[in-house]
Design a protein that fits this description.
This protein is mainly alpha-helical. The chain is built from 5 helices and no strands. The protein starts with a helix and ends in an 11-residue tail after the last helix.
């Protein structure tokens, strides 16, 4: 799996785990029969801000890792992987903090909910979201290793001059 596919999977994981925070198309204009949308709670607004900040950090991570995979390092896989590991280690606290923040948010939603079906969904999400977010860095590491190995195995491009 390529680095870009893995990062896309990260985005999909976050979208699956937090559909309320996924970037959706603009909602259709409400009809007269529809009730107005419930305003967002301060906790939801705060969580959306944390999700946006986390997404920005993941974009920075992608940029840094792409530079390591694509960068001119003489094809030294060990040096590239060491650089990637250092980058991932710097970002691991971001994964951990966002996972904890999201779990705390879900705990608050669970405590406030009186609907049993909603409580079950929140409980299920609570059990999956944190481990999924914390597991992103190891998934990315595997993809980076594969990308670095593939780049090292690819034959160097040869420029052939043709007489005019």
């Amino acid at each position: 799996m390529s680095l870009r596919l893995t990062l896309a999977a990260v985005a999909a994981t976050l979208a699956f785990a937090a559909p309320a925070f996924a970037q959706d198309a603009a909602p259709a204009a409400p009809t007269a029969a529809e009730a107005p949308a419930k305003p967002k709670s301060p906790a939801e607004v705060e969580m959306e801000a944390k999700a946006a900040a986390f997404q920005a950090r993941m974009e920075s991570l992608q940029t840094e890792l792409s530079a390591v995979v694509d960068g001119p390092d003489g094809g030294d896989e060990t040096k590239r992987m060491a650089a990637a590991d250092a980058i991932l280690a710097r970002y691991q606290p971001d994964f951990d903090a966002f996972a904890s923040a999201f779990e705390t948010f879900l705990d608050g939603q669970l405590a406030a909910s009186t609907d049993e079906a909603e409580r079950q969904q929140l409980t299920d999400a609570r059990g999956k979201v944190g481990p999924a977010i914390r597991g992103i860095a190891p998934q990315i590491r595997v993809a980076v290793q594969q990308a670095i190995t593939a780049a090292a195995a690819a034959p160097a491009a040869t420029v052939v001059a043709t007489p005019n």
